[in-house]
Amino acid sequence: MDKYDVGIVGLGWPGERHAEGVQGSDLGRLYAACDLNEERRAKFAAKYFPERVFGSYDEMLGDPELDAVIVSLPNALHFSGTLKALQAGKHVLCEKPPTLNAEQMRQLHAEAEKRGLIYFFGRQMRFSGAVQAARRAVAERRLGEIYFAKTMWVRARGTPGGIGGWFTDRSRAGGGALIDLGVHAIDAAWYLMGNPKPKTVSAQTYQKFPQLVKAAVFDVEDSACGMIRFENGASVLFEVSWAANLTDDIPMGKWGTPELFSTTLFGPKGSIRIVDTLQLHPSVRIPPLSLFEDKDGKLVDSELPFQPVVHEFVSQMQNFLRAIHGEEAAVNSSVQAVLLMEMLDGIYESSLSGREVSLS
Ligand SMILES: NC(=O)c1ccc[n+]([C@@H]2O[C@H](COP(=O)([O-])OP(=O)(O)OC[C@H]3O[C@@H](n4cnc5c(N)ncnc54)[C@H](O)[C@@H]3O)[C@@H](O)[C@H]2O)c1
Questions:
Q1: Residue of minimum CA distance from atom 17 in ligand 1
Q2: Mind listing the pLDDT tens digit for each residue in 114-154?
Q3: How many independent structural domains does the chain possess?
């Protein structure tokens, strides 16, 4: 079978991982790459050898060879970058967060549906070996009906920059720690719970560490916490931070500051905890996947074995390309992206209003 010609726009860290995703998948060919930044284009071309390199996104989209586009641009360009690609007849995989708000995502969903194109949002962690094993344990009903989840991605010190400091600028990022790390933490729990329909949100965002930020603009939150209720009665408690005075139960992270990305699901028969060990310092030993089961009234804990995947971005790309080919349903679908953005909108609205917000 012919391979799909894939182009990547935005050649930072995730752009490079997507290149590896395409090159590691048997359905894709790394055809084109695009970035405004000449240095990044040169570095990328020397490493991954795309057939064509562009400084203009419009020019890349005009290439009739191109079948699919990976949008790996700063957050504020996800909507326009994805819309343009769909209007040019290309399938799209866009990095997280899908858009800046749910209304933008509804428009993209409608556009993709109208044109019969695949829209896919980037959440490679759904494809990790630990998450897939946890999915299977949930499907085998080892926990029973999940009624509650606790999810966090907390970092003591580590407010990001991005080219030009866009991560801390609301006009370019759409938000702070919540839209950056919270989208991963909330989705980790939500995906394993089977993507129940969100019902209400009560949340608060904070900006408490401006002195740590050197960027010219810092008008976003550096932490957030809250609770989401779902229509099936289950709930999720979440906590995220780029900066916080974390306590000593949080281990050392890979950047040399305390950091933990962890999700725990609770059911009457057992609980499962997933820790993203990629975020931990190499000296820290925490099992990536643990099961805490009720055995005749006693709580027994064990490590759940799983087959690690070689590269999460390859598995993600395989699903995206197979969805284009009509062999598999897109796991990170536009319908789910709309619901995810509704939750994020609700969190920001609840924080602003100081009240619980209804989503349904
Ligand atoms: N999935 C993950 O684990 C993960 C990790 C990091 C970042 N991300 C997401 O990936 C996206 C990019 O993040 P990043 O860290 O690479 O940011 P970055 O600022 O390092 O890179 C963005 C790139 O886009 C280029 N660019 C900007 N406008 C452009 C345009 N109009 N045309 C062509 N190129 C343009 C910039 O020159 C830059 O090279 C963000 O949305 C971020 O949330 C995802």
A1: 162
A2: 999 999 999 999 999 999 999 999 999 999 999 999 999 99
A3: 2
